[in-house]
Design brief:
The chain is built from 15 helices and no strands. By secondary structure, it is mostly helical. The protein folds into two domains: 65 residues, no CATH class; 209 residues, MetI-like (MetI-like fold), CATH 1.10.3720.
Length: 283
């Protein structure tokens, strides 16, 4: 590499790179430290007390807390409930929002624009404002304290319809008309041509629907009465409330609930980051 190339590289080098790197590492440590502390506390003997914070990170260690909680609590059941509800909610949301968006975007029928305006208005109404009428509807359908009562009210996604409609609108009209002239039905047109083009949008909607369902507290708290149907956001506070002065058992329960999420994030990190960046750009 000649001297001119070195000079160009020096000019293009970010003078604040070291500062940005230091700030980024510092912020990362601040965010990850509570997780590290939780993991260390979860392997301490039950009833362990300390007067020095450093002792939380030093021996003795034991995994008996994990065995005890798994065998004698409902935490695995709550974990399973959260997974079932989040997965089914995500699948149904993707199916319904994609079909609705395709109909509004590509099919011709009366009041199409009016219906789309209602979807836009749905973004302006806070979710808390619909809780009471939603509860009354679910109660009248005898779905309180059931999986159906947890899942069905959460599958409506106005934002998903709006995002997918914008993607479907971008499909060239010539492609749609050619497929229809060749005898392609609307369902086949949706499945074979339009839907594959919207994979980035579908991935983003799916990721955030799953995260929203997994972390949802208010609706499961109101609609579930049986402990066996609790999801993690509802079950963990109930469990932790019985250990108001203790650290170890609540931290062990939180660690058991967090480990699957951490593993899933490490596996799907690229997809989650792409979903976040996509939503930020298109929003």
């Amino acid at each position: 590499m000649n001297k001119n190339s070195l000079k160009i590289l020096e000019k293009n080098r970010d003078p604040f790179r070291s500062v940005k790197l230091t700030v980024g590492i510092t912020i990362s440590i601040i965010f990850i430290f509570p997780i590290i502390w939780m993991m260390f506390v979860s392997v301490k003997p039950d009833g362990f007390m300390t007067t020095n914070p450093v002792e939380w990170f030093t021996p003795p260690y034991t995994f008996s807390n994990y065995v005890d909680l798994i065998m004698n609590s409902l935490i695995l059941r709550w974990l399973w409930n959260s997974l079932i509800v989040a997965v089914i909610t995500t699948i149904l949301t993707l199916v319904i929002t994609s079909l609705a968006a395709f109909a509004i975007s590509q099919m011709k029928f009366r009041f199409k624009n009016t219906i789309f305006i209602f979807f836009l208005l749905g973004l302006m109404i806070p979710g808390e404002a619909t809780i009471i009428p939603l509860y009354e509807i679910v109660k009248s359908l005898n779905m309180i304290d059931s999986y159906a009562g947890l899942i069905l009210p959460m599958i409506a996604s106005p934002l998903g319809v709006i995002i997918l409609k914008s993607f479907f609108d971008g499909v060239p009209r010539e492609v749609i008309e050619s497929a229809i002239m060749d005898g392609c039905s609307y369902l086949k047109l949706f499945y074979k041509i339009v839907l594959p083009l919207a994979k980035p949008a579908m991935a983003a909607i799916g990721i955030f629907t799953f995260i929203g369902s997994w972390n949802n507290f208010l609706w499961p708290y109101l609609s579930i009465l049986s402990e066996t149907l609790y999801t993690l956001p509802v079950g963990l506070p109930v469990f932790n409330s019985t250990y108001s002065q203790a650290y170890v058992q609540p931290m062990t329960a939180n660690a058991i609930a967090s480990i699957p999420v951490i593993v899933a994030f490490l596996i799907f990190e690229k997809q989650i980051v792409k979903g976040i960046s996509f939503t930020g750009i298109k929003g």
